[in-house]
């Protein structure tokens, strides 16, 4: 497999097969990132298509900064497109939904299969899911999240806390149910 640098060089030379290789190499990662924000598969396909149109049309202007920088750039575009999609398509709201029983014990996330954890995250209310993803996976500060979503910094922090508690409750329920299987 070619390095990112070699792939970019081929693209800049006009090699159309290199564009296909770029898509093939990164579409799976893009789907995983997009799925964090857009749980509906049809909507996700639209986001991925829009993302790759943007990626493929601007890849010649991408500044290579070392192995992994291309992948990071691609995934940043996908997450931005997904966030924009959610902001445009749905009037997502920030809710005060708490689980019936808030558990203080930190669940053992390592015992939950990744696909189950992703499903739990996708079931969170939109506002919770957006803030959780931006804070945990994109490593944005609450100040950055507030600016991106046009909310107060304190709203971002409280949504994250609520998302974390609701997710912990879901994980603990899952682990309890697994004990009895």
TrEMBL record:
<dbReference type="InterPro" id="IPR007627">
    <property type="entry name" value="RNA_pol_sigma70_r2"/>
</dbReference>
<dbReference type="InterPro" id="IPR036388">
    <property type="entry name" value="WH-like_DNA-bd_sf"/>
</dbReference>
<keyword id="KW-0731">Sigma factor</keyword>
<feature type="domain" description="RNA polymerase sigma-70 region 2">
    <location>
        <begin position="22"/>
        <end position="90"/>
    </location>
</feature>
<dbReference type="Pfam" id="PF08281">
    <property type="entry name" value="Sigma70_r4_2"/>
</dbReference>
<dbReference type="GO" id="GO:0003677">
    <property type="term" value="F:DNA binding"/>
</dbReference>
<dbReference type="InterPro" id="IPR039425">
    <property type="entry name" value="RNA_pol_sigma-70-like"/>
</dbReference>
<comment type="similarity">
    <text>Belongs to the sigma-70 factor family. ECF subfamily.</text>
</comment>
<keyword id="KW-0805">Transcription regulation</keyword>
<dbReference type="InterPro" id="IPR013249">
    <property type="entry name" value="RNA_pol_sigma70_r4_t2"/>
</dbReference>
<protein>
    <submittedName>
        <fullName>Sigma-70 family RNA polymerase sigma factor</fullName>
    </submittedName>
</protein>
<dbReference type="Pfam" id="PF04542">
    <property type="entry name" value="Sigma70_r2"/>
</dbReference>
<keyword id="KW-0804">Transcription</keyword>
<dbReference type="GO" id="GO:0016987">
    <property type="term" value="F:sigma factor activity"/>
</dbReference>
<dbReference type="InterPro" id="IPR014284">
    <property type="entry name" value="RNA_pol_sigma-70_dom"/>
</dbReference>
<dbReference type="InterPro" id="IPR013324">
    <property type="entry name" value="RNA_pol_sigma_r3/r4-like"/>
</dbReference>
<dbReference type="GO" id="GO:0006352">
    <property type="term" value="P:DNA-templated transcription initiation"/>
</dbReference>
<feature type="domain" description="RNA polymerase sigma factor 70 region 4 type 2">
    <location>
        <begin position="117"/>
        <end position="167"/>
    </location>
</feature>
<dbReference type="InterPro" id="IPR013325">
    <property type="entry name" value="RNA_pol_sigma_r2"/>
</dbReference>
């Amino acid at each position: 497999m070619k390095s990112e640098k070699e792939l970019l060089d081929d693209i800049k030379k006009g090699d159309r097969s290199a564009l296909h290789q770029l898509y093939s190499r990164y579409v799976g990662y893009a789907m995983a990132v997009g799925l964090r924000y857009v749980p509906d598969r049809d909507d996700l396909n639209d986001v991925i298509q829009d993302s790759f149109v943007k990626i493929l049309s601007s890849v010649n202007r991408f500044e290579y900064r070392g192995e992994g920088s291309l992948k990071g750039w691609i995934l940043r575009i996908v997450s931005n497109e997904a966030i924009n999609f959610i902001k445009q398509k749905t009037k997502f709201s920030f809710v005060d939904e708490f689980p019936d029983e808030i558990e203080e014990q930190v669940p053992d996330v390592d015992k939950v299969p990744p696909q189950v954890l992703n499903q739990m995250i996708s079931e969170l209310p939109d506002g919770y899911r957006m803030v959780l993803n931006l804070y945990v996976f994109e490593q944005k500060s609450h100040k950055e999240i507030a600016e991106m979503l046009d909310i107060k910094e304190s709203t971002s922090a409280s949504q994250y806390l609520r998302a974390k508690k609701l997710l912990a409750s879901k994980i603990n329920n899952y682990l309890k149910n697994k004990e009895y299987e």
